[in-house]
Specification:
- The chain is an alpha/beta fold.
- The protein has 2 domains: about 230 residues, Phosphoenolpyruvate-binding domains (TIM Barrel, Alpha-Beta Barrel), CATH 3.20.20.60; about 60 residues, no CATH class.
- It has 13 helices and 10 strands.
- The strands form 2 sheets. Strands 1-2-3-4-5-6-7-8 form an 8-stranded parallel barrel, surrounded by 5 helices.
- Strand 3, helix 4 and strand 4 form a beta-alpha-beta unit.
- The two termini are about 20 Å apart.
């Protein structure tokens, strides 16, 4: 699976922000054509994004572009402008139905064929940020093989639900949990909602750890100061790695090799699900290390 601990958003019409993109240690740089770009600036943003796809990723980050949802009648123009070499994925804003995904899949294949890009090379990320989008998160996620991740969008979700957005997030709990479960059921990565109180680092870290326990493996970020803690929290800790290595070793040597279904490790029972969880942790470490090596090489 791709590494998506930190998904940092950059307004597509802001030249100074785009110039800083290669210096940011985010796993994904998302050049935005949606909410952070006013209507009068959409055409300019499309041009700037197209011209800077490779540049934005020159520091080693994958580059995605968030496009406007189909109901705006701007999606087609967005895609025509940005599907070029250097683009890793498209984030579809306000995805509400599997048909939105199928339509996007068809358009991406058309553009890939027209522009000589490998068919299927552009991934899809879905923003589930309305009541309809949350309810349809799973069927939307499996509507195309391109979909690799779901983002829960709390700001638009709370607006749609006619409730106040809070840092405590009680009003988000059901939807936040639902999107995480839907992503896992579809074999996708769950990416947590942005934390708008970006100056409150302690609250951000607390919220991110809570989301991690829900099954989120990355976060949509709106401030550079959020990148380091997101990368740290979504990576296995040294303690987790040591535990996983010990579990794998003892289960393989005392369990699998001797035909036992369960063994003991540090006073706790280890059976197959625990062993598989430990292997997942070590696999995650391998993926992150490989990504970091690639980033250093490209940067």
């Amino acid at each position: 699976m791709p590494v998506m601990r930190s998904v940092f958003y950059v307004p597509g019409n802001n030249e100074s922000f785009i110039k800083k993109a290669p210096t940011l240690p985010a796993d994904i740089i998302t050049l935005d054509l949606e909410d952070s770009v006013p209507p009068a600036e959409k055409a300019k943003a499309r041009e700037m994004v197209r011209e800077n796809l490779k540049f934005a990723g020159s520091g080693g980050s994958a580059v995605y572009v968030r496009v406007n949802n189909w109901e705006t009648l701007m999606t087609n123009d967005d895609l025509e402008a940005v599907v070029h070499e250097g683009l890793s994925g498209i984030c579809l804003a306000k995805c509400g139905h599997p048909d939105d995904v199928r339509r996007l899949d068809w358009k991406l294949e058309e553009l890939e064929r027209r522009r000589g890009l490998p068919v299927g090379s552009i991934a899809v990320q879905l923003l589930c940020e309305t009541a309809k989008g949350v309810i349809n998160a799973y069927p939307s996620a499996i509507a195309s093989k391109r979909v690799n991740s779901l983002i829960f969008g709390a700001v638009d979700y709370t607006k749609d639900m006619r409730v106040k957005l809070t840092s405590e997030g009680v009003e988000q709990f059901y939807a936040r949990s639902h999107v995480a479960v839907a992503a896992r059921a579809a074999g996708c990565i769950a990416i947590d909602c942005p934390f708008v109180a970006f100056q409150d680092v302690e609250a951000f870290e607390k919220s991110t750890r809570e989301g991690r326990q829900m099954g989120y493996e990355g976060r949509m970020l709106i401030h550079p100061n959020q990148i380091e803690p997101a990368n740290r929290i979504y990576a296995p800790s040294p303690e987790d790695i040591e535990w996983a290595q010990g579990v794998v070793k003892v289960f393989e040597e005392e369990g699998i090799a001797k035909g036992a279904a369960a063994v003991s490790y540090k006073g706790k029972m280890v059976d197959t699900p625990v062993y598989e969880n430990a292997r997942t942790i070590l696999k995650t470490v391998e993926e992150i290390n490989a990504f970091e090596q690639k980033r250093k090489k490209n940067g």
